[in-house]
Design a protein that fits this description.
Order of helices and strands: HHHHHHHH
Pfam families: DUF2062
Largest sheet: none
Radius of gyration: 24 Å
Structural class: mainly alpha
Number of domains: 1
Organism: Manganibacter manganicus
Strand content: under 5%
Number of helices: 8
Keywords: Membrane, Transmembrane, Transmembrane helix
Number of strands: 0
Protein name: DUF2062 domain-containing protein
Helix content: over 70%
Distance between the termini: 59 Å
Length: 198
């Protein structure tokens, strides 16, 4: 395969690079933004896709791509932008996103949660993956809290992304128009020089 590595990266190396980029976070962020801005779609479609991915990142179910794709389809978003938007949820940010969702859900369901709060045997429950035991104290508040946080954060990302994509596309159209005008001027100049004398 073209541009394939001579020595393939191990799973640990891929995971490490996912947590900590090889170069820098700012360079990775610039590359990520350029990929979003260069999508061939309307500013609304790109922004709606990114907002869908951001919204899905707050959910604890591990099906972010499915949620992002479904929400993006419902609001006429770009699917690629939705998948890129799920990058907000990563091993670095998951503790903050899920913790905020859980705390928000606890505040919203304070009359419906057990009074003793988080069970002391939470580690064993997570290890055994007993969803029926996790539902009341953990999953239900996280799901309820994820909705308002995801909507609010998604709206912020929608506004910023739509503004950024709109500016990027306007500048690209102007550069293209200027380049086309220069080509036309050069063609007219060459035609004038090479034309036979009257």
């Amino acid at each position: 395969m073209l541009f394939r590595r001579r020595v393939s990266e191990s799973y640990w190396e891929r995971f490490r690079l996912w947590l900590w980029p090889r170069r820098s976070f700012s360079r990775s962020l610039q590359y990520f933004l350029k990929r979003i801005f260069r999508l061939k779609a309307t500013p609304h479609a790109v922004a709606a896709g990114v907002a869908s991915g951001v919204f899905a990142s707050f959910f604890p179910l591990g099906v972010h791509f499915i949620i992002a794709a479904a929400v993006s389809y419902m609001i006429a978003g770009n699917l690629v932008a939705a998948i890129l938007g799920t990058a907000l949820g990563n091993p670095v940010t998951f503790p903050f996103l899920w913790g905020a969702s859980w705390e928000t859900g606890k505040l919203m369901l304070h009359h419906h949660l057990p009074h003793h709060g988080t069970p002391a045997h939470l580690g064993a429950m997570l290890h055994d993956l007993t969803v029926s035991q996790l539902w009341g104290p953990i999953l239900k508040p996280m799901l309820v809290g994820a909705v308002p946080l995801g909507i609010a954060t998604g709206l912020i990302f929608y506004a910023v992304t739509r503004w950024g994509v709109g500016r990027f596309q306007d500048r690209r159209r102007k550069r293209f128009a200027e380049r086309l005008a220069k080509v036309n001027q050069a063609a007219c100049a060459d035609g004038g020089i090479g034309s036979p004398a009257q």
